[in-house]
Structures are given as C-alpha cells and as structure tokens.
C-alpha cells in the first residue's frame, strides 16, 4: 500500500474503529441500565404480590376470627389456622427474597404476636366463651349467639393487633420506594456512562475528520491544483512548470513525472 493511500485508509479506519468501540461501550452500559430498570420493576411487582398475599391471609383470618369469637362458629377454627400458616409462609418467602430486611422486622413481630394471640384464643378463649353462653342462654341456645366476652376480646385485644399487622404489611409493600432514590441515582449514572462514550467519540471523530480534511487539502488537493494551474500555464503560455510546496508520496512522484515529460518535450526530435 502506497503512502497516500495508506494515510487515507488509516484515517478512515481510525474513525470506524472509534465508532465501533464507542458503540460497544454504549451498548454495554445500556444493557446495565436496562437490567437495573428491570430489577427495580420486578422487585416492586414481587413486593406488591407478596404484600397482597399477606393482606388477603390476614383479612380472611380476621373474618374467620370474628365469626368464631363473636358468633361462636367453631367451623372457622381450621380457617384461622390455615390463614395464619399462609401468612407465615408468605412472610418467610419475603424474608428469603428481601435484600433489606429492616422493614420486615416489625412485620415479623406483628405476625408472631398474631400467632400467639390466635393460638391462645383457639386453645382457651373459645372454651370460656362457650361456658359463658351456656350459663346465660343454656346449652341449646349457645350456638351462633353474639357473645359479649368475645366482642370485648376482639375490640380490646385483637383489633389493635390486626391494625398493627396490616400497617406493617403496607409498610413492607411500600418499602421498595425508599430504595428507589439511590437506585435511580445509580441508573442516572449508568445513563450518563452510556451516553458519554458516544459524545466523546463524536467529538474525537469531528476532530479527526477536520484533521483529515486539513491534511487532504495540504498534501493532496492544493498541490494538485497548483500542478494543474502550472501545467495549464506552460501549455498556454510556455511559462515554466514550477510547483512549490511540501509535496510527498504520490503527489511528489506525479510532479517529478510531469517535469520529466515537459523536459522530454523540450528536447529536439531526432
């Protein structure tokens, strides 16, 4: 590869390589940005899903306990136990998947309280209620009657505990929002990192193109224009062919060959 062709090829290949490198870096950073965004959305959706499952379990357990404590519906025993198991299992899944378990401490404590109160009531509280109803209304009419002791227990003990549990579940559901700020800041940095290589590449590419344009004018276009003008003057007016400038490579070789051709034309024919 000759000198002029080599310089032009190297100049354009450097632009291509720079664009390729900046494109690869940008694609890599955009991949990180896309992955971070997907993880945030996935974590939010998963938190909402688990919180909904726990709220549903707590609500069903609450309704079953109302039927049991207020109306003495013993068929709700199994529902209460099943809902508590469902709540605890969902909490265990949330604890295993959570990166920050701070918001789960209060939820775990409220769930433990709920388990203790529910188990104690199922074991002892319902017996006291049935004895109270039987003493007041008789054994035959004790079933499915509102019980003042059960209502009092529900209002004074269970209702406040149920409120704390649901509040803890809601706090867990919104816990990911507190981590959005640093993660959003990290995503912002990733976005800047994705765009920065392109901006740098564009700036460098503009500089390279301007330099290539300058050297093309200096070493190729301008000398050819001078040679063309000087050759035209020699052909029209016999003005000596004289091209000044810093000529290199094929342009210098072309000038020398034109001078040789002119000198040969000046020699008398044999």
Protein architecture, described:
The protein has helices at residues 3-71, 77-97, 102-137, 148-173, 175-178, 180-237, 249-266. It has 270 residues and is mainly α. It folds into 2 domains: 10-191, Four Helix Bundle (Hemerythrin (Met), subunit A) (Up-down Bundle); 203-266, no CATH class. The radius of gyration is 44 Å and the shape is rod-shaped. It starts with a helix and ends with a helix.
How are the SSEs placed, and which strands pair?
Layout: H1 3-71, H2 77-97, H3 102-137, H4 148-173, H5 175-178, H6 180-237, H7 249-266
Helix pairs in contact: 1-2, 1-4, 1-6, 2-3, 3-4
Q: Can you tell me the number of structural domains? A: 2
Oligomer: single chain
What is the helix/strand order? HHHHHHH
Number of strands: 0
Helical run tally: 7
Fraction of residues in helices?
Answer: over 70%
Low-confidence residue ranges: 127-144
Largest sheet: none
CATH class of the largest domain: Mainly Alpha
Average residue pLDDT? 79
The SS-based structural class is mainly alpha
């Amino acid at each position: 590869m000759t000198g002029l062709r080599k310089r032009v090829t190297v100049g354009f290949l450097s632009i291509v390589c720079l664009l390729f490198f900046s494109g690869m870096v940008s694609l890599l950073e955009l991949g990180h940005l896309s992955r971070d965004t997907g993880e945030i959305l996935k974590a939010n959706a998963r938190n909402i899903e688990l919180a909904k499952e726990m709220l549903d379990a707590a609500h069903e357990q609450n309704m079953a306990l109302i039927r049991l404590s207020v109306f003495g519906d013993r068929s709700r025993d199994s529902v209460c136990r099943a809902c508590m198991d469902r709540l605890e299992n969902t909490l265990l899944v949330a604890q295993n998947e959570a990166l920050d378990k701070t918001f789960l401490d209060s939820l775990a404590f409220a769930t433990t309280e709920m388990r203790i109160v529910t188990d104690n009531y199922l074991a002892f509280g319902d017996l006291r209620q049935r004895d109270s109803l039987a003493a007041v209304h008789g054994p035959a009419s004790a079933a499915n009657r509102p019980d003042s002791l059960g209502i009092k227990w529900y209002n004074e003990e269970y209702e406040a505990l149920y409120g704390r549990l649901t509040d803890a579940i809601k706090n867990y559901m919104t816990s990911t929002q507190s981590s959005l700020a640093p993660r959003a800041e990290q995503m912002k940095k990733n976005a800047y990192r994705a765009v920065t290589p392109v901006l740098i590449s564009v700036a460098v590419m503009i500089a390279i193109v301007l330099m290539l344009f300058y050297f093309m004018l200096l070493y190729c276009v301008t000398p050819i224009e001078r040679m063309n003008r000087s050759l035209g003057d020699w052909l029209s007016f016999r003005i000596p062919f004289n091209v000044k400038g810093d000529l290199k490579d094929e342009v210098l070789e072309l000038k020398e060959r034109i001078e040789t051709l002119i000198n040969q034309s000046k020699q008398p024919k044999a």
